[in-house]
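Submission checklist for the structure archive. All mandatory fields must be present; incomplete records are returned to the submitter.

[x] Identifier: Vanillate O-demethylase ferredoxin subunit
[x] Organism: Prauserella rugosa
[x] Residue count: 331
[x] Sequence attached
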Amino acid sequence: MAVQTRSHWQQARVVETEDVADGVRRIVLEVAHPEHAAPGTHLDVDLPTPSGRQLRSYSIVRSEQDGRRLTLSVQLSPASRGGSKAMHALTVGDELTVSGPVQSFPLSVGASRYVLVAGGIGVTALVAMATALRRRGANYELVLVGRSRRFMAYLDELRAEHGERVRVHVDDEGTPLSVPELVGEVAAAPTTTELYMCGPIRLMDAIRSSWAEHALPETNLRFETFGSSGRFEAEEFRVRLPQFDRDVVVAPDTSILDALTAAGIDTLSDCRKGECGLCLAKVVDVDGTIDHRDVFLSRSQKQRCANLCLCVSRAVATDTSDRATVTLHLT
Ligand code: FES
C-alpha cells in the first residue's frame, strides 16, 4: 500500500460547501480531533474513488475554532475520475478520513519583507500566510496571478483583507505577471525579501531561474507545488516494470504512484507533490518524452532523465507513437 500513514487519522464531517470561482469549490470540515493548523499546513485526505482509495493533499485555507473548522478549496480537474471529482461531489453531512494538519511550507518569522506569489489555485496555500503576516504587522505583498478572474478564488476576499498589498495579474486582461520585473524588484530592494510561491510548475520554474540569475539567496525562496501542472497536457501512457513482469496504464487523471497502488504494486511515498524524492524510480527506457513535474530533481538531473518522481511526473507520446511507454525499475 503506497498511501503513507500520517501520525494520526481522524474522521471529519463536511459542514459547508460553496463554489468560490469557476471550477473551485470551498469545503469546510469539522474534524474530530482539533489541533492548531499553522500557515503552510495541509490536510491529507483518504478518498474512495472509482480507481481505488487515493490520498490527496489540500492546503488549509482557514483554520477556525481552535482547529475544529478547517477550510479547503479544491479545483476540479476537467478529466477527473479521481480526487478532485470526489471532493466536488461532497455534500454537507458527508464523512471523510483526514490527517491532522501537516506542515510542509512553514512561514518564517522576522524577515524584513515578504512577497507571496500565488498562481491559480496555488492561492490556497497562501491565504492563511497573508493573514498571519497582516496580524504580525509585517511588510508584505501578495501577488495573485491567473488566466481570468473567474477562475481566481478568494480574489475579492483578499483585496478586502489586504487592500493595497494585493497585486493582481490576469492574462486575459493583458496584465500578465512579468517574472523578471518581479524578481528584479526583489533584487533591487534595500531590505532582504523572502519570496513564497505556490502555483503551476512553469511559473515556479521561471521564478527559480530568475532568482538564480540575480544570485539571490536560495534560502529566501520558498515554494510549494501542486502536481497537476506540467509542460505538456496530461495524456494516457504505459509504464513497464520488468522486475515484476507487469505493464500498468496510467490514465490522464491519475499519477503513476496511484496507478501502481491500484495495481497492487507497493512503492514508497511521502509528500506526493514532487518535493521529497522518496518515490524516485529509475528510468530504464522511454518511448516518448518525460514530463518531469517535480521540484526535487535539478534541471540537469531532469535532462539526464535517469530517474523520475512517481507521484507527479508523466510521459507524453512523440509524433510517431500514439502512446508513450516508460520502463521503470522501482528501488
Ligand atoms: S512522494 Fe515526495 S516526491 Fe514523490
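[x] Structure attached
Curator remark: The domain at 9-103 is CATH 2.40.30.10 (Elongation Factor Tu (Ef-tu); domain 3). DSSP finds seven helices and 20 strands in the chain.
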